[in-house]
Design a protein that fits this description.
7% of the residues lie in helices and 29% in strands. It has 2 helices and 32 strands. The strands form 11 sheets. The chain has a 5-stranded mixed beta sheet with strand order 3-5-8-12-13, with no helix packed on it. Strands 4-7-10-11 form a 4-stranded mixed beta sheet, with no helix packed on it. Strands 14-17-20-23 form a 4-stranded parallel beta sheet, with no helix packed on it.
């Protein structure tokens, strides 16, 4: 029986009775050495000047496409600004280093299977290839980026990811993170350097539960609620929010809690935030307890009282001399006359009405609006 070969890695499968007295060599060269190449082999492939470069794929002997690591070299541009590096239609994963020199920003190098979708190899910037490996998987037809971190990962340097990224555990990167496509995080991601994301970012809480921000829209975005004092359940969807704010803003019962009611309300920093009270609100009139988180106070309208007025005096002036010294029902305040001292006003029935008088009461005591110039927005809270 003739030897056959494994489907994906093309390793030799010795046929019954074949190659007598030489099976050891076949095992070494056709299986063990090729398995080593598939697990840890490194091949440098120069793209040359053709638009399509098929990688060699041999049954039972060394080839390019069996290697675990591929470094693509050469240059692209001019008459051919897209080069396809073609791999066999076999299930296999590759780590690819794109070390190609580019002529134009539109130049691309694609790793693909003939007749199927491929992956555009990343490059660090115009004119140069990438400086880190890109992990791709061929499922026997299509080639896709495969960047799945299913467990906790710590990366002690910069991280560059060319394709979609899914993080289901905790990912800690001590350098910068650069993601060229969509990032989905269901665990926690910590970056101590700059982060650049070229696609959508989902599953990452950039705001902690309980954070409140002004919002110009009418409907709260995903992960947020309008803050109008509504009652929520403590367990389930809003557990993180309850853990952050508790029953500070009220509760209907032992299973619920309220969010802050910010309808028509301004927000002020807690007076004793940080440990010591600044006394900027606490103790002022208006009933504001600035040292208590969640306390309310202040009024929408204010009535002016005598105590609110600055100290002042009302001066009275008369415009004619008087002729008498005692007031009667028909007399008016007048300038000093011949009978009065120089410091007294006289009374006379012939003097005109004083220039300034206190005979009429004015004002209604109605409260005045106490609202500063205001633009109305919604407030949303992260849950």
């Amino acid at each position: 029986m003739a030897s056959t070969y494994t489907t994906n890695l093309r390793l030799t499968k010795q046929g019954d009775g074949e190659n007598p007295n030489s099976w050891g060599q076949i095992l070494n060269d056709g299986v063990i050495s090729l398995a080593d190449q598939a697990i840890a082999g490194y091949a440098e492939v120069c793209i040359g000047t053709t638009v399509s470069l098929p990688l060699t794929a041999n049954d039972g002997s060394s080839d390019q496409s069996r290697n675990a690591f591929l470094e693509i070299t050469g240059s692209v541009g001019g008459t051919h600004n897209t080069i396809n590096v073609v791999i066999p239609n076999k299930s296999k994963s590759y780590c690819v280093l794109n070390n190609v020199t580019y002529t134009d920003t539109t130049d691309t190098v694609i790793l693909k299977v003939t007749g199927h979708a491929g992956v555009t190899l990343e490059r660090s910037n115009y004119g140069a290839g990438a400086t880190t490996f890109q992990h791709v998987i061929c499922d026997g037809a299509s080639v896709r980026s495969a960047n799945l971190l299913a467990n906790n990962v710590t990366i002690a340097d910069n991280l560059v990811v060319g394709g979609n990224t899914a993080i289901t555990g905790t990912c800690t990167v001590t350098g910068a993170g650069q993601f060229k496509s969509t990032v989905t995080v269901s665990g926690a991601a910590h970056f101590k350097g700059a982060v650049s994301i070229g696609g959508a970012l989902t599953g990452v809480d950039l705001m902690p539960a309980g954070a409140i921000v002004p919002y110009a829209g009418t409907t709260a975005p995903t992960g947020y609620l309008l803050a109008y004092g509504q009652s929520l359940e403590r367990a389930g969807t809003y557990a993180d929010l309850f853990s952050a704010i508790g029953t500070t803003y009220g509760s209907a019962d032992s299973s619920h809690f309220n969010v802050p009611d910010l309808r028509g309300r301004a927000i002020a920093g807690q007076d004793d935030m940080g440990g010591s009270s600044a006394d900027r609100l606490t103790g002022l009139t208006g009933g504001v307890d600035g040292d208590t988180l969640g306390a309310g106070g202040g009024v929408e309208a204010v009535s002016i009282t005598e105590a609110n007025l600055a100290a002042h005096a009302h001066l009275i002036a008369a415009d004619a001399e008087g002729s008498g010294t005692y007031p009667t029902a028909s007399n008016y305040i007048a300038k000093k006359g011949v009978w009065g001292s120089s410091n007294n006003y006289q009374f006379s029935g012939t003097a005109t009405t004083p220039t300034l008088g206190l005979t009429t009461s004015v004002g209604s005591g109605t409260a005045h609006n106490n609202v500063q110039p205001t633009l109305i927005l919604n407030y949303i809270i992260k849950f």
